[in-house]
Amino acid sequence: MKVARRREAMLQAVLNGMTEVSALCEHFGISEVTVRRDLRALADNRLILRTYGGAASVSTHAPEESLDERRHSFPAEKEAIGRAAAAHVAEGDTIFLDSGTTTAALARALANRKDIHVVTNNLLVVQTLATTGVPLTLVGGEVREPSMSTLGPLAQLTLSRISVDKAFMGADGVVPGRGLCEATADQAWLKECLMRQAANIYVLATSDKLNRDSQQHWAPIEGPWTLITDADASHAGTRAFAGMIGLTIESVRVAGSAAA
Length: 260
Hints:
By secondary structure, the protein is α/β, with parallel strands linked by helices. The chain contains 10 helices and 14 strands.
C-alpha cells in the first residue's frame, strides 16, 4: 500500500476509535516504527493529536451544554451508572462527588446511606443529600452556573487539606492517554487536584463522552482508575480504551437496552 493511501486509511482508523499503536500495527500489518512515523506525519498536518502510546482525533471545540441540556441528556443511562457506582461505596468510606449530572445521579443512589461521608463541590448533590441525613461537606468557592458547582482558589485550597477514599469524577469527555476534558482551565485543574487526594478514582461517563474531545482543557489521570459507562465492549468509544494499563472498565445495563 502506498504511503499516502496508508496514512489516509490510518487517519480514518484513528477517527473511528482505533487509537493504540499496537492495534494499528496489527490492523495494517506494519511495524511499530512505521506506525509511529505515520502518526507523526498526521499530527504534523494537525489531523490528529499524538498521545502516549497512540493518537487521538482532533475535533472542533463545541459550545458547552447548558445545565438544562445536561439534565435531559441520557437520563436512564446516568441513573444506571449512578446505581453501579454506588455499589463501590463501602461502609465508612469518605467519598468525593465531582460536578455534573451523572455524579448527581450517584447522589440519588446514596440518599439512604448514613454510614458514609460525602464531600462535594456539586450543588446538585447538596440539593439531593442535604435533608437525607447523609453526612455531607460542601467545598466552597466560586459558583459556576453551567455545572452548578464550586471551583477556584478556595476550592483548590480546601482539597489540598483533605483526602478521600474514593473520588467519583464527571467530565465533558474522557480520552485515552489524555484524561478528562473540560471547558475551562479552572475545572480541569480542580479535577487534577482532587484525583491526587483520592485513594481510588472512578470516572462516570455516558457512551457519548468516550473518546470525545469537545473541549480544550485536560486533567490527566495518574495511576489506576475505573471507568463506569453504559457503553458495552463492542462500542467504538469503549474499544478506544482497550489495553490501557491500570484501567478497569465496568459496563452497566440500562433498562430497556441491550447494553451490558
